[in-house]
Amino acid sequence: MDCVLKLDRLPEKKPFIEGIRRAPRRDSVLSEHDMEIALKNALRYIPEKFHKELAPEFMEELKTRGRIYGYRFRPEGRLWGKPIDCYEGKCIEGKAFQVMIDNNLDFEVALYPYELVTYGETGQVCQNWMQYLLIKQYLKELTNAQTLVIESGHPLGVFRSHENAPRVILTNGLMVGLFDNPADFNRAAAMGVANYGQMTAGGWMYIGPQGIVHGTFNTLLNAGRLKLGIPKDKDLAGRLFVSAGLGGMSGAQGKAAEIAGAAAIIAEVDYSRIETRYQQGWVSKVSDDLKTCVEWAQEAQKEGKPLAIAYHGNVVDLLHYLINNNIHVDLLSDQTSCHAVYEGGYCPVGISFAERTRLLAEDHEAFKAAVNASLKQHIAAIDELSRRGTYFFDYGNSFLKAVYDAGVTSICKNGENEKDGFVYPSYVEDILGPQLFDYGYGPFRWVCLSGKPEDLDKTDAAAMDCIDPTRRYQDRDNWVWVRDAKKNKMVVGTQARILYQDAMGRLKIALRFNEMVRNGEIGPVMLGRDHHDTGGTDSPFRETSNIKDGSNIMADMATQCFAGNAARGMSLIALHNGGGVGVGKSINGGFGMVLDGSERVDRILSSAMPWDTMGGVARRAWARNENAIETCLAYNRDNEGTDCITIPHLADDALVHETVLNALKD
Ligand SMILES: NC(=O)c1ccc[n+]([C@@H]2O[C@H](COP(=O)([O-])OP(=O)(O)OC[C@H]3O[C@@H](n4cnc5c(N)ncnc54)[C@H](O)[C@@H]3O)[C@@H](O)[C@H]2O)c1
Predict the structure, then answer these.
(1) What is the C-alpha to C-alpha distance for residues 628 and 441, in angstroms, rounded to an integer?
(2) Count of C-beta atoms within a 10 Å radius of residue 637
(3) Cβ neighbourhood burial of 625 (10 Å; 0-12, 13-18, 19+)
(4) What is the CA(321)–ligand 1 centre distance, in A?
(5) 264, β-bridge pairs
(6) Which of 7, 88, 177, 496 is buried most, with the most CB atoms less than 10 Å from its CB?
(7) How do residues 376-424 score in pLDDT, each as one tens digit?
(8) How many Å apart are CA 77 and CA 85, to the nearest integer?
(9) Ligand 1: distance of its center to the CA of 271 in Å?
(10) pLDDT tens digit sequence for 184-204
(11) Is 120 in the pocket of ligand 1 (CB under 6 A)?
(12) C-alpha span between 103 and 110 (Å, rounded)
């Protein structure tokens, strides 16, 4: 096995394909010494004989793009997740991961494919094209007695292990606490030693915006039930949902709203992203005229018909129009990339998208000031709509944190700082946490590695058979979701499906699929999930925002989940810093499991699948979350003799309150 990148000659420099989105110049404050290190770091991948030619080219990339991507090393043409048999490899996992990586970089799927960004403005598969080539080189040679180790996109090497060990262990952006902040992260990223993996970008488990459609659909539907009083068997017909962003993940909003029956207006400043969603059929109407957008929405509401409208313009302008014209909004959110608010994730009101890109590159301080001013107007408009009866929720993009960072302390519960949270809830706090995560329902997913649509049809049908729609309303929602999945045309990239399931639901489906592979009914399958799940992510502003025992700032759960999945033999395990909310604000992990039809895989699934989810439910139960306690009691009953989850005793609130009061009086 070669332990350097095989490179007899330098690939030709190639022109960029026009019309493909490009990442803006990234923030990089490097000293002269740092720049030298950055350059040496990038040249580590390249034989010395080419350094003279490449050094100025890499330096130019650092200067103009803020990062060294090694554009020249990107394979020519479109990358896409091909059927698994098209890939070379010595074990099925080595081939399967190549499908997943290439899918994450597909022009149709990725946000900035040339910069290896899959979604979320900065979420990369790895840092540069040299790493990409070296990872693929290793994956072709990897055997089922070895494990490939990847640290922030860099393939550290292949080490001996055993058949039941993970084939790939990867981490992204994990920083020592003192340096765990955006400024130090950006410096490290510019020097080529830190990768922002987002959640599934660096974990190679992104399946296009379908992945988030189901979560957004669940959130909207349950927000309607909880806040608008919609009965559990009804949808959002006649209601108006307003938000911003039609990018990588936010692109799901229109589609999810339509599936949930609502009329939706989604603002987007970048026309290329609107075009993509329109061509996919994920938004049905497009206009840059506010009056037209509102008329379309009102007509759909009157007829009770679902409709997703893209407004080409800034969300702040949209909100002002709605306020000035007294339009009632039922549900309101935002999915601009506020986790990277000063890196281009949020476009300030009053300037065009092109102007934002120019300002970002030429005058970062002015750009920051414009962002802050815009966020202030944005939250003032949300405050006004809320006073008029709109339910606003933060959709896990750090919007409220960004508003606070812009200097608005009135959104803090304690009026001073973010320590006690914000006056508006995060969607997990109110909706997804108690209604789904506390039961173990989370974004389970799979990819049919054969690339055959008929395999996906068969797995959809099999998954539906595994669900009892009469057990809980969540099961009925999931059953309906998978029943209609094909009709809703959600596949972008590989033949993949997302389906919220609880722990035992996931296990049942996983074992059924493995049996189907064994019987030759379908080709191999890659199982996984979003990191945004019951047990995979510690994030006080999002996934763990409904944990109220003080442990919401701890990262033990996500780390244990990662280690436990390794111990049980998942094929790929990942642990990242940041995710959807930004550096230092979350630790998140995920897994990939290749179903090859073997009994060995059955055994791994039987212990790993329940652990992956129930570890999270157990922690939520220990935090005294009611639905999680109920779920753990049932789990303990059903799994007596093998598993046993610690259950909390619940102290009486009045007793505790009185005791503390008395103690303070003394
Ligand atoms: N809650 C979740 O489950 C979840 C999942 C994934 C991502 N996220 C978060 O949501 C955010 C969006 O993710 P993404 O992958 O779609 O990112 P993205 O960068 O691809 O898309 C954001 C879009 O917002 C648009 N935009 C920015 N400012 C705007 C403005 N003022 N008005 C109108 N449009 C504006 C951008 O042009 C862009 O297309 C990120 O912060 C991400 O971390 C949340």
Answers:
(1) 11
(2) 8
(3) buried
(4) 22
(5) 241, 308
(6) 496
(7) 999 999 999 999 999 999 998 889 999 999 999 999 999 999 877 899 9
(8) 20
(9) 14
(10) 999 999 999 999 999 999 999
(11) yes
(12) 8
